[in-house]
Amino acid sequence: MTMKAAYITECGPSQNIQYGDIEKPVATGRQVLVKIGAVSLNPVDTYIRNGANYWDLPNPFVVGCDLAGTIEAVGEKGTRFQVGDRVWGTNQGLLGRQGTFAEYCSIDEEWLYPTPDDVSDEDAAACSLVGVTAHLGLFRDAKIQAGETIFVHGGTGGVGAMVLQMAKRAGARVIATAGSNEKAVRCRELGADTVINYKTENELEAILKAAPEGVDVFWETLREPNIEGIVSVMKERGRIVIMAGRDARPEFPVGPFYVKCLQLFGFVMFKASADELRACANDINQWLADGTLKSQISRTLPLSEAANAHQLQEDNTLGKEGSIAGKIILIP
Q1: Per-residue pLDDT tens for 129-147?
Q2: Spatial CA neighbour of 167 closest among 92, 217, 130
Q3: What CA–CA distance (Å, rounded) separates 111 from 65?
Q4: Same domain, 185 and 70
Q5: Is residue 73 a part of any domain in this protein?
């Protein structure tokens, strides 16, 4: 049997993505077969499609990490789920696993989580990779505490919007940046206490105006971080989280960094264990269900538009076009 999928047979630009029929997967062992309701696009998807891989890809390779849908079949060793259960997940299309931009995916049950009853597939998919990324950096690594102050670069971005909301829920004071008045309004709606327009204000001066003693946590989403500037606005014993910039090689201000007793955390979510991701998912499910975590969906497109969606994401991630605020969702 076949299914529709967005896939590549060769790495390269977005137009390499084909949309057509490939073989429908089956569930064996601990896998379950998920009928996909929605998928979401991440910058890492565009990097992998373009050839930035440290592992071999299946051929054809279905693009995409995130998914939400309904279980259609359970492998003979599966124990976590039953046919008909709604689930969401991420971490596919990575480390040699097949991706998610298809009508069906066969996925090991350890990478899937139950979708709360009142949460749509679109919302669950939109919060998946970005949600666990924010959770890992905030709670596992930076260990943010109530009453602390955090600065978030890009409060309406995919990860930034998750960090903003989760930090606020944890009782932190949140300073965020936005590139337009419209995005600044959205940051405030999500709970930001102070919003800095990085196009009209001096960012570092504005941070210190809002937090004269410095910030406890600095969440960097930029691909070219200014470490010197970051260290200058940190409070003693502050924590810096970096999750982007594979090619960045900035100068590092060793003296001020160690004199302030700072910590620097770098991580990629796909190297987290299944247990670590499940702990993130448990909180995300609770917060989605009670309404304290809201997805940020910028565009919803049919799966057949996957190539155009990749180009739109790339124009914003690399080209800094600023035409999306949040996630691109695709529907099979």
Answers
A1: 999 999 999 999 999 999 9
A2: 217
A3: 11
A4: no
A5: yes
